[in-house]
Every structure is written in C-alpha cells, then in structure tokens.
Fold each of these.
Amino acid sequence: MKLGKFILKRILQTIPLLVIVSIISFFIIRLSPVDPLAELRLNPSISQETLAKEKARLGLDKPIIVQYGLWAKSFVKGDLGITSNGEKVSVKLIERIPNTLILTLIVIFMTWSVGVPLGILGAIYNKTKLDRILTILSSVGMAIPSFFFAILLLIFAVKTGWFPVGGLTSYDFNDMNFLGKFFDIAHHLVLPVTVLFTLSLAGLQRQMRANMLDVLDSDYIKFARAKGLSENKIIFKHALRNAINPMITLLGFEFAGLLSGAALTEYVFQYPGLGRLILEAVMKSDINLVMASLMIGSIMLVLGNLLADILLLITDPRVRG
Amino acid sequence: MKLLDIKNLNLSFKMENGVFPALYDVSLSLNKGEIHALVGESGCGKTMTAMSIIKLLPKNAIITSGEIIYNDTDILKSSDKELRNIRGSKIALIPQDPMTSLNPLYTIGNQLLEIIEKDKSLTKEEMREKCIEVLELVKLPDPKNKLDIYPHELSGGMKQRVIIAMALASKAEIIIADEPTTALDVTIQAQIMKLLNEIKKEFNTSILLITHDLGLVGEYADEISVMYSGRIVENARKDEFFNNTLHPYSKALMGALPANTNDKILKTIDGQPPNLQEEIIGCRFSPRCEDCDITVCQELPCLKEKTPNHFVSCHKV
Ligand SMILES: Nc1ncnc2c1ncn2[C@@H]1O[C@H](COP(=O)(O)OP(=O)(O)OP(=O)(O)O)[C@@H](O)[C@H]1O
Ligand SMILES: [Mg+2]
C-alpha cells in the first residue's frame, strides 16, 4: 500500500519533468533551420495526401506555441507522426525498444556480476598486487575508445567468421526451433555486449571499490570488528550491503545512459536498437523520429530512476523513514 | 587485583616520510570492578592505547614492544581466532560516536543478536528474551518493540544505551569506553555515566574510561592516568590525584576546570600539543610548561613513584 502510493507519487512528479524536457527539445529542433518535411517531400513514394496530412498535424503555418500544443496533443494520443520513409514512428519504436532492452539488460547484468565482486576484491586487498593489477586493467578498459574497440572486433569477426556481423537474427531465423532462435540471438549479441561491457565495467568496478573502501573505514565496521564478528560476516553482512546501496542510484542512470551510449556500438554492428535509430534519425534530420526518440530517452531516464528509487526503498530502511 | 595489565607499550605509525612513535612506554592496569580514567587532550594517544587492548589498530600502526597481559596471556601475541573470542565477549567496546557505530541497514535486534548468538546453547526464544532483558537493564523504554526498529529511529542517547546493552549481553569483564558521552548532549551524558557506574557496581565490571572531561573523572573514576603526547605523565588513585596533583600538565588541566576558575574566565593551556612528527628534546611538555627549567628538562623524564602509588614523570616534582 505504502509502496503503491510512493510509486504513484513519483510518477506524478515526473510529469512536469517530461513536459519541460519536451518543451526544450521541441523548441531546439523547431528553431533550427531544417524544414521538418524536407525529407518527406524528396521521397517519391510519399503521396501528396500523406504530406498534407502530416503538414496539418504539425500545424506548420501556425505560431510555434500552437505547434507545440498540437505536437503534445498528438503525442499524448500516441500519434508520433511518420518517418521520412513514411513508416509510423510508433511502430518503428516499438520494434526497436525490445532489442535495446535486451542488450541493455544483459550488459547491466554482466557488468554488475563482474564489476561488483572485482570492486570488493580491490577494496579488501587494497594496495596489494591484486588491487594494482585490477586498477591497471580497469584503466585500460576505460582508456579504449568504444568506437575503435568495436571496429577492431568487427574486423576480427569478419576475418575469422566466428561471429555474425550485423542484425540480431540470421536470415533463416524463422525456420529455427526455440533453442536455435535463442542461440542465434545470443550469437549476434556477443560482440555488441562485449564492447558495452568493457566500456562500463571499469567505472562500475572503481565505484564499487571506492564505496567499499569508504564503508570498511566506517565506524560501524570498526564496531563490528570490536564485537568479535568473523571477517566473512563483517564483509558480506555489514559492509557489502552498505557499499552497494549507493550503486543502486547509479543503476537508474546506467539504464538510461546505455541507451545513448550504445548508439555508436549499435551503429558499428548494425544492431537494430534504439540508439542506432536515433543516430540515423539525427543524420537524416528525420524530425518526428528525433523528437520521439528524445522523449523515449527521457522516459527511460525517469523510469530508470524510478526503478532505482523503488529498489532503494526495499534495501535501505532510512529511505522508508 | 589486576585484571588487565598493559606493560611498556610502544606503538609507532608508518607514514610516507618515516616511522613515528605515537605511544612511548605506556603502562596502565585495570583492577576488577573499578573505573580507570585515561585523560588527555585530543591526539595524545588515548584511543590507540585502548584499541591496542583489543588489537584493532590502523593498518599502518606497528606495536614495537610491550605486552598486554589478560588472564595470564599476552593479548598482543594472540591469534586472530583467540582475539575474536576476546573482542565483544570478554572485552567490550563502547565507541565514541554512537550515531555512526550501528549499522544503518540492520535492526537493533539483529545487531544485538550477533553478540547473544555466540552462546550456542540458547534457543531462538531464549535469545529473544535475553535481548529484551539487556535492553531493560540499560533502561531503554519499551524494549520489546525496539528490537525491530532501525538505528536511525533512535536518538543518540538511546543508541548509546543499545551499545551498552551489547556490552552487557556479552557479559564482558572489561568495558573500554572511549569518550562514551562526547557526542551526546549534557543531560544525556550524565544519564549514560550513571548507567555505566551502575553496571560497574552491579556486575563488578572493570571500565577503562577515556575522556577529556576531568569533571566526569572526579565523579566516577577510582584511578586516574593522565596522558600527554603518547606518554603517561601521572597516575594515582582518584582522591590522591585531586588532593595532591603533581605534574604541571595535570595541574594545568585542573586549572582549566570550570569549577576551579574563580575569576569567571576559563583558563586555557597555552600552545598546542606537539604532533607526532615533531621532535622535541627532553620532556615533551616542556615547550608549554610554566615550571620548565631548561637545565634539567632537556633530559627525558620517566615515570617515578613520588608518594606511595602516585607516579609522575617530571624533573621538577
Ligand atoms: N592511521 C594513522 N596514521 C598516522 N597517525 C595516526 C593514525 N591514527 C592516529 N594517528 C595519530 O596518532 C595520535 C594518537 O591518536 P589517538 O586517536 O589515539 O588520539 P586520542 O587521544 O584518542 O584523541 P581524541 O581525543 O581526538 O580521540 C594522533 O596524533 C593521531 O594523529
Ligand atoms: Mg580518541
């Protein structure tokens, strides 16, 4: 009950935020000298009728405030307009969102299950050889530009033929049985996941190490030691939970961050995700698509934070109040 | 009867620019059922002395010599396992800041149980009863309902009571109270000190009371040691100490007591205590000492018994 009320309150709080984001994005896009319909006009397969309908929907001859009102009205109704190819934006997004979610969730899951233990090790063995090696490895991981790394992997994949390049599924995907489909997708995910995993692992590991070091130095850990508890209990019961809590907030940002951070990687591997869609939309100045993507990005950020807050509510009694 | 005996403890800190001594030849003993007060300014080494007793020191601390005898064995030579059996079971700690010494993520009951469940013979139900019993002993109101709440729901004084309850739950023979009331406001301070004193009387517990408040000492201590810059400079029974203060530093501390300043202006001791890395020839108090005599104080004084059971380390006494 309390949880339900909290979630409802948080969702209501995010509405003004989304409105502000939409206003800013809308004005920046509309104030740029790009004609929103230029691409559509150039596309011979778009009929005059569609063009006229889109013109009316956007209200391009009206003042910009009215234009925003019209956009907001159709956004709330779920009508996001059409892309420069004449496809419905909403259909395009719905097709891409699950792909990006799969990629993002796998990467987050992997970075957490590797980064958190490595961070703990680094803190427990602070200033020993092990810690130094981990620090050097994570510096290397942080220093490699993701774009460059992605291209290297791409070359590797092409040369060896070990990994498929591009897409999420093979051409004969529809003929496969369930297990086959699963492995096919996994096979396609290996390279993009590797790049994004390397990219975000180092930061997470360092953050965890720093948190853990802070916690190990705290009064309650010293007191737990003075109580004569075993080292295992001190680390895994008392220190770990306290060190992970601040990471949960980070998780919310990571969720949204990967969406945009993945764009380049998705592009290199021709992965059919949201990031690549946005990148291509911007390059083609496909206004409707850019605007919708920006909104999806903010909604993801808000959702990520909401999720993190709910998790924190469960793990930290001080938040429950 | 000496329950705990620290003999000539020397401790140094390893730092980037060298190794610096922090405790010199500290000797201190605790008698059964008594409060021994360890007094001194901030940074003089009180906490390091206390933490040596349970061998919980910063990573860069090195004990260079000395022994700490408890139950005929030297704690400093004990294994980790033996130490864990001493910590929180035989020797309990009451830390300086109760606000931050309890883990914010676990309930009071959970953290109290960690001590009680060391006694493997108890059933779940008995453990719970024991928790409530010790919380009653420290006069925490409504103890039954306190078990399931989190530390942030308690005030500082209440938290300190919970921590004292942990010491009671362990039936510790020795309690190290490191400035147990510094973080609390004055009225709560008095209550906590009264509680500790009652525990001493009721359970015959020995308490090492670390403080910079000589007022507390006058009221509750049985024996007093004054520490200055890593050394014990004076040691005596309480009455002897207050009636016949010998060391110039102790006298200055007494002079700084509000009750002893008749002219309404609080007297302070001029200057700062030296820091660890500062080299001082001879007596470490000499730069601040009103009675200092360059000719004799250039040599390091050692602790001598001036009158029976009254030790002082000063050339001028
Ligand atoms: N890890 C460390 N490395 C170097 N020096 C340290 C370290 N820990 C403590 N010290 C120094 O050792 C000295 C003694 O510290 P200690 O904590 O025992 O003082 P204290 O008498 O308890 O002071 P307070 O009243 O402020 O608690 C201080 O000068 C302090 O700066
Ligand atoms: Mg201290």
Note: Chain B has two domains: 2-90+172-312, 101-171.
Amino acid sequence: MSALLRIERVSKNFGGLVASRNVSLALEPGDRVALIGPNGAGKTTLVNMIAGLLPLSAGRVMFAGQDIARVSAVARVRMGLVRTFQISRLFPDLTPREHLGLAVLQRQRRTGHLFRRFEAMAEVHREIDGLLAELGIEALGGRAAGALAYGEQRLVEIAIALALQPRVLLLDEPAAGVPQGETRRIVGALDRLPADLAVLIIEHDMDLVFRFARHIIVLAEGEVIFEGAPAVAANDPHVRQAYLGSYVHGRGRA
Amino acid sequence: MAWNGALPNIRAWPDAAGIGSIALTILAGYLVFPDDLALLARILATSLLVVSLDLLVGFCGIITLGQAALFGAGAYAAGIAAVRGLSEPFSLLAIGAAAGGLTGLVSGAIILRAHGLAQLVLSIAFAQLLAETANKASWLTGGSDGLSGIAPAPLFGEFRFDLLGRTGYLFSAAVLIAVLAVLRAIAGSPFGLLCRGIRADPVRVRAMGVSVYPALLKMYIISGIVAGVGGALSAITTQVVGLDSVGFDLSASALVMLVLGGAGSLYGALLGTVTFMLFQHFVSAENPFHWLTLVGVLLIAVVLIAPRGLAGAARTIASRLVARWHPQASR
Ligand SMILES: Nc1ncnc2c1ncn2[C@@H]1O[C@H](COP(=O)(O)OP(=O)(O)OP(=O)(O)O)[C@@H](O)[C@H]1O
Ligand SMILES: [Mg+2]
C-alpha cells in the first residue's frame, strides 16, 4: 500500500478519445519498470498525468503515500518526481553546463539569486563537472545545446534529470531519435542510474527494454494488456499480437 | 564567444568594455553638442524606458504595450515629491525607482496572468487606467496641464540643474551607466540564466522544478525600477511631468525604438532610442507633417532588411569583417 509512486485506476479522455483507461501501477525504490506499447497507446499521456502536466479524468496518483492531485507540476519535481521528454527539449542557446547549473541551483533554491555570478559558483560547477563526467559528455559542456548531435542532447536530458536528484524518474523514450548504433552511451547511462532510484522507462528499442527492465507493462489503446516479467512478456501471444510482432527476445527485431 | 547568427544571446549584453564605450559615447555627446544637452538628456531618460522594456520583451518574451505606465509612475512620484518639498535628486531617484517597482509588481501580477494577445491587451488597459487616474487626480498631478514647479535641489548641494542642462545630462549619464552595470551583473547571475531559460521554453523550466510566474514577476519589478528611475530622471531634468509620460504614444514609441534597435541585447535598446529620437528631433523640425511617415518607412526598412534591428545588423557586419580579416579568429 505504501509504494513510493502508485497510480490507481487512472483514466484520461480527450473528447471522445480514451487515451488511458483504468491504468494502475506502482513503483518502489530501485524498481526498473518498462512501459511499452504501440504508437498512440497512451504512454506519454500517462507520464504527463503523473508529472502533473495533464489533469486526470479519473483515478488518482499517490506519491509517498499522499494524493498529489492538487500538487503543481513544479512542486512534484521538487518532491522528487522527475520526467524527461520524448522529444529533446533543451534551451538551444544554453550550454549543457548551464542546463545542469539551472537544475542544481533549483535543488538548492538559488535560481533567484541576482548578484552572484553563476560562473563563479565553484561548488555548483564541481557538481556539474561530476554529472558531465558521469554521462561522458565533459567535452560538450561549453557548446550550445542546439548545436549538439541528437544523441548527445538525449544524454544531456538524462543528466538534467539526475541533477535534480529524483526519487522517481520517468524516462520517456530516452533513445528515441538516436541512430541504432549510437544507443550504447544511453544504455551505459541507464546502467549507471542510482540503484535506489525508482525508474519507469518508456522505450520502443526492445533490446534496450529487455536489457534494462525487470518488470514490463504493456499498454494498448490506453489499457494495460499485460504486466509481468520480461521473459514472460516476450512469449505472451497478446503482447506479440498487439506490439512485439516478429521481435524475438534475445535476437532483436527480425 | 562569437555571435553565431542565432537570436541575440544574453552574453552579447554590454560587458565592461561595452559599458565603457557607451560611457565614452555619452561623454562625446557632451563635448560635441554642448547646445543640445536638454535633448540629449531626454534621450538618456528615454533610453532607460526602452532598456526596461527590453528586459521584458527581449529578455523574457513578455509582450507589452504599456511600458509607459512604469516610466510615468516614476516620473509622477518624483515630480509630486519634488513639488511637495522633497528636492534632493538622489532621493527623487529612489522615489521614482520605488514607484516604478511597485507599479511593475501590480501591473505584472495582472498582465502575466494572460498570454499572447490577451497579455498585450491587458498591458494597454493597465496603462490607460493609470493615465486616466493621473488625468482625473488633477489636484495631485496637475491633470492635463501637467505637473510643473519641480525644482530639484543642486546635486551634492553643489551643481544646479540649470537651463544649459549640463548637470542634468551628466547626472543622467551617470545613472544610465550605473543601471547598465547592475543589469550586466544580473545577466550573469543565476536569475539571469533562469530568464534565458524561460524565454526559450517555460515548460522545460517548470519540468526542472522552477516556477515561471514568480520569476517573471520579479523581472517585472526590476523592469519597473529601471523605468521608474528613467521617469524620475526625466522629471528632474525637464522639471515637468505631463500626461504624455504615461500615455499610449510613449509605450508604442518605446516598442518601436526597441524593434528599431533590436531586442534582447540592451545595445539595441540604446541604439534604437538614439536613432528614433534624433530622427524625431531633426526630421520633425524639417518636416513637421510627415516625420511620422518617415519613421514608418525607416521602421519598415529596418524590419525587412535587418530583422534583428540596427544592433543585430551591426553585429552581423562586424562578425563578417572579423571573419574576413581574421579567418582563424572567428570561432
Ligand atoms: N493533448 C492531447 N489532446 C488530444 N489528444 C491527445 C493529446 N495528447 C495525446 N493525445 C492522443 O492520445 C493518444 C495517446 O497519445 P500518447 O502520446 O500518450 O501515445 P504514446 O503511447 O506516447 O505514443 P508514442 O509511442 O507515439 O509516443 C493518441 O491518440 C494521441 O493522439
Ligand atoms: Mg509517447
């Protein structure tokens, strides 16, 4: 009952369209849960509702035992509920260092400081250096984010999320848009996520999903059609029909 | 970092060297045009208005056509204080700053609730409300006759604000330079960084756990303080305050000056103000009936040929020249 994040019978309608129907799930610290399903299944909609960007049509979202219906999106982040975006959403003119700086300063509630020079805040920059090194993007720290390769932008997205020191991390397709051969660094970053962090990952790259997740939820047309261990999911006929198609677990998409 | 052709970067704000050259230019104005110091002082006060507008429009992406409300609040507050016996110039500046900041807080709290076109309309409505209040409260403001009898005490008890306008000009110059130095510090601060983020993508900022509304409100207060200081300067140096200082015309002109010079770099705000007001002064003297037409033509030409304004065009040309003469230096 006291899961860190628990969503209970959540539904979402857009006019006549049902984007989520009676979805429930729970995350504990250290969990690695994958949410998969075809395009338009309602995965991002679910993340938006958990993050507080979309109101629920029905159901409730509990965080640390508390109903957070009335908690703003900003306050949810401050509570430790952090998401990344399916499509990279960086400030094009800002450098990765500045992005991470904003995240670190937010955690310390110092984004409002007027008369300290950001460049001179040594302890902030030490932490940023650590984060950049963690993701292997030290060399990119000083370039405008808009000029980075897409795969590099995805790494910056993850770094920002980590800079916020989340308790629950919602990763919306961290490898989306990254060329096949270049997902290695993202996989590496995911492997090094803090062990006690609760992670919900949405991803279409099934190799990545089966490598990372210890629990899989399959969504189709807004509804959970399967929930269980990865090996079972891979062999479930409903899942295969709705989503996996000819994917063979362990060998990649045929 | 070289300018890369993208939106004006906040790092293109005046640095120490930039502020130094602005100071030198202002000093040159003093030496070269000793007979026009009254006009030049008005340009400096108006620069503060346009700079304050740039903080909102160029820095944060807020749309407003009511910036004169903040300027006028500062002008009337300083003017009324002076008429009622408080005449020390720095105190008048402080009063103007406080009035501008307070007006920024109130108008920002309202205007920031809306977005886009609604925001624009609210900004106009708020300024009109203030203008109408100033008009009706003629016992306090002089109404449509304007507030006269402002007699600021000598600066440091020593330098009188005389008809030649030397004290007024140098005082205005010093205040403008000081304001630019403070804004430069803010641009490099965590708050400056946050504002750059907000201009680019408020949703992204919220997803980092930072509330956008309070940050913009804070910027509105800062903008109000800058505009209020400009208004107070105008009251001190011209020694009258009229309804035009809160009027729609001034708000619209300020936006025109900003677009003319280029939003987002502060240099553009200064350049646009100087260009517009000199143009106004000389062309309207030559041709009082058609000078606004010519302003229109000038503005259309600038917007079409140099969409980032005069400052943007100047920077493009400068970086091309640098690239031509020092190919390896242009990173
Ligand atoms: N704001 C919205 N208004 C109306 N319809 C929406 C809105 N957001 C999403 N939808 C619809 O809801 C459905 C679910 O969309 P969602 O983005 O959650 O899918 P998804 O599972 O994330 O898909 P993908 O794998 O393509 O990212 C889609 O049919 C989509 O068109
Ligand atoms: Mg999606």
Note: Residues 10-246 of chain B form one domain.
